[in-house]
Design brief:
Four Helix Bundle (Hemerythrin (Met), subunit A); 264 residues; alpha/beta; Rossmann fold
Length: 264
């Protein structure tokens, strides 16, 4: 890899704001840009595994690619990368079709954080319903919801931006809540950005459907998931001997709080 390629890969691997599906699409595009370079592919795969091992969908993808690289089959490697790029568009279309059948008359939807899958589903939804109203929570502490809102606005969608704490006020007026998933456990509990559990509980109280939109690659064969703490200064950069600031970015949502999980 040359200097520019290394820089591009590092930018992808250090992305803390995009969803795992979107990061994976960027990674796939990067691998397509270095075909036939086994040493560069091997090094890039190892680097990606170290940086993105917490994303189930990325782990599965990298394992499949790694096996092909070990067998040194350039054609199969290229086919694997090109098929992935093609299937991503087909996956989004299938997820949207299934969701639209569940809530065909929905005029207002609330979503949380930033998900490439949900972003693309909402773009397709706009074609079916040009006046669709989308409510997005800001998604503290990294404010991924603000990035989501900007991209939705670029697509011509009508957006209301609210704080996470305002969800209880607005959920009464929405037709459906949609969230993404970092992983789906074997028992069908869902791992997603912290704040998803609060939304699911609100949906249960107000009798609103909440659907998880995700790809099959995020389905795990285990019922456990390592929820880790991250930099607490992202929540509050203040120190005091009696203060402990906590930043846990992902949480587990019980399947009983979820109306349905929709994948391809």
């Amino acid at each position: 890899m040359d200097k520019k390629q290394k820089e591009k890969l590092n930018n992808i691997l250090s992305d803390k704001l995009s969803g795992s599906s979107e990061i994976l699409c960027s990674l796939n595009k990067f691998f397509l840009s270095i075909p036939g370079k086994k040493a560069a592919l091997n090094k890039s795969i190892l680097h990606a595994k170290k940086k993105l091992s917490h994303f189930a969908t990325v782990r599965n993808y990298l394992s499949g690619l790694e096996k092909l690289v070990k067998h040194n089959n350039d054609k199969k490697i290229k086919d694997y990368l090109e098929q992935f790029a093609k299937s991503e568009n087909e996956i989004v279309e299938k997820i949207f079709e299934k969701l639209h059948k569940k809530v065909p008359g929905a005029k207002s939807v609330l979503t949380f954080s930033r998900s490439g899958t949900i972003l693309n589903v909402l773009k397709l939804w706009k074609k079916e319903n040009p006046v669709l109203n989308v409510i997005v929570t800001e998604s503290r502490p990294a404010f991924e919801g603000k990035l989501m809102a900007k991209e939705l606005l670029k697509s011509g969608l009508k957006v209301n931006m609210i704080t996470d704490a305002m969800a209880g006020m607005f959920i009464k007026s929405v037709d459906v809540v949609i969230i993404g998933a970092d992983a789906v456990l074997r028992n069908k509990n869902v791992i997603n950005k912290t704040g998803s559990l609060s939304l699911a509980l609100l949906c249960m109280y107000y009798k609103k459907p909440v659907y998880v939109l995700t790809t099959k690659s995020k389905f795990l064969k285990t019922n456990t998931y390592n929820l880790i703490s991250e930099d607490p200064t992202k929540v509050w950069n203040f120190k005091h001997p009696k203060l402990k600031t906590i930043n846990i970015p992902f949480e587990e949502i019980d399947k009983r709080l979820i109306t349905g999980i929709i994948s391809e």
